[in-house]
Structure formats: C-alpha cells, structure tokens
Write a structure and sequence with these properties.
Elements (H helix, E strand, L loop, with lengths): L13 H14 L12 H8 L3 H13 L3 E4 L3 E4 L8 H21 L4 H13 L3
Antiparallel strand pairs: 1-2
Helix pairs in contact: 1-3, 2-3
C-alpha cells in the first residue's frame, strides 16, 4: 500500500494528484493487482478533501481500466499494467525539482546548496 498525501502548493488539482499517486504506485509495484484501496470516505478524511475529489479520481482510473469498483465490496487495483512513459516521467521530475527549489528558497537555500546536499546524499548511498 502507498501512503497518500497532497501538496497544496503544487498547483496540481487534488484529484490529479490522487490519480498520479495510484498510477505510480501500480507502475512501481507498490500497489498490486487485486489490492483494495481505501474507501472514498476513508481517503477523503485522511487527505482532508471533499469525498467528490476522491470519487472523481477513482472514477477516472476506473474508466481507464486501472481500478475496479465492486458495489458493496470496495475499490481494487485492476489487472491492467500501468507504464509511465519517459515524457510523463520527465514532467514529474521537473515538477518535483521545481517544488524542491521553491521550498528550499523559502528557507534561504540557494540552488547550489541544494545540489551540493543532493550530491552528498548520493555519495553516502542514500
């Protein structure tokens, strides 16, 4: 199971963040076929969003054949494989890096300091 979270400062709609997290969870095999997802209400409470936001995300993924909702039982990861293409990966990495730089600058870090820190982590095997 993955740990769901939302970034309120990213500018990405909440339902899209939920969709992306589920897709990446499946692509990375942290979510497996047949695995049950939290109910709409449970996830909405956890993320502190309107249940319609979660319902829209689940519905979008169900239309794509990625999720399977069984009335009275729950929502499950479908059997369809999810692959993230290089363009989508690049867009996600760009977004992550932009958020990192923006947050770092809020605390007074320069891009050089951030890169040096990441390089130290790489050298330490993190």
């Amino acid at each position: 199971m993955i740990e769901f979270g939302l970034d309120v400062k990213s500018g990405v709609p909440f339902h899209r963040q939920i969709v992306d997290q589920i897709k990446y969870g499946i692509a990375s095999e942290r979510l497996l076929p047949g695995e049950q997802l939290p109910t709409v209400r449970e996830l909405a409470v956890h993320l502190q969003v309107n249940p319609n936001t979660v319902r829209k995300a689940y519905s979008d993924l169900e239309i794509l054949g990625i999720l399977d909702t069984q009335q009275g039982t729950g929502t499950f990861v479908g059997k369809r494989q999810v692959e993230i293409d290089e363009t989508e990966k690049e867009q996600m990495l760009t977004q992550i890096c932009s958020e990192l730089v923006a947050r770092g600058s809020q605390y007074g870090f320069t891009l050089k300091e951030i890169v040096e820190h990441l390089q130290r982590r790489l050298e330490n095997g993190e």
